[in-house]
């Protein structure tokens, strides 16, 4: 079994950018510079400061797992694929990060069952879990349907492949 969690992919991660910018998330092209050029984001990642995971690191790590662990029978994927940039989330932003991780998993493990679930960073706004009763009460105006439907009907349909699985998800 492989368990993936809290990847916090950052599609804006930029090697050479400032990794000690004083913001909640650094290592981006617009990260404020400090006066110490020793703190730059590396090509593969920067784990000492406020930086999330670059795409090349996530892709290559998952590819390595797929190439070297053909004996994986199933994958438990417990979310938090979206970076810690909670002030920049949007439906499009969050889906782009989830899709990038989904694509990497499908490519590296095309025939392995994956059991995905959501972390607290996948919704927009972050931590927003709308009870079904509220969705009904507001006639869909307050809803997580955009996320559940996009994942179950599109990105994750090979893993959520029955009506009962979709309902449980």
TrEMBL record:
This is Calcineurin-like phosphoesterase domain-containing protein. GO terms for cellular component: extracellular space; lysosome; membrane. The keyword Iron does not apply. It comes from the Eukaryota. It comes from Medioppia subpectinata. GO terms for molecular function: acid sphingomyelin phosphodiesterase activity. InterPro entries: Calcineurin-like_PHP, Metallo-depent_PP-like. PANTHER family: SPHINGOMYELIN PHOSPHODIESTERASE. The keyword Coiled coil does not apply. Keywords: Glycoprotein, Hydrolase. One of its GO terms (biological process) is ceramide biosynthetic process. SUPFAM superfamilies: Metallo-dependent phosphatases. Residues 2-132 form the Calcineurin-like phosphoesterase domain.
């Amino acid at each position: 079994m492989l368990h993936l969690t809290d990847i916090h992919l950052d599609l804006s991660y930029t090697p050479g950018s400032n990794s000690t910018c004083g913001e909640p998330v650094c290592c981006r092209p617009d990260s404020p510079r400090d006066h110490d050029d020793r703190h730059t984001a590396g090509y593969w990642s920067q784990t000492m400061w406020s930086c999330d995971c670059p795409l090349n690191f996530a892709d290559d790590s998952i590819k390595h797992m797929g190439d070297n662990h053909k004996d994986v029978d199933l994958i438990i994927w417990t979310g938090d694929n979206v970076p810690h940039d909670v002030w920049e989330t949007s439906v499009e932003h969050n889906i782009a990060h989830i899709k990038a991780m989904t694509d990497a998993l499908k490519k590296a493990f095309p025939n392995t069952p994956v059991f995905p679930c959501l972390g607290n960073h996948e919704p927009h706004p972050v931590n927003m879990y709308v009870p079904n009763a509220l969705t009904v009460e507001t006639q869909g105006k307050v809803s997580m349907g955009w996320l559940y439907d996009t994942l179950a009907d599109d990105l994750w349909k090979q893993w959520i492949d029955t009506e009962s699985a979709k309902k449980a998800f």
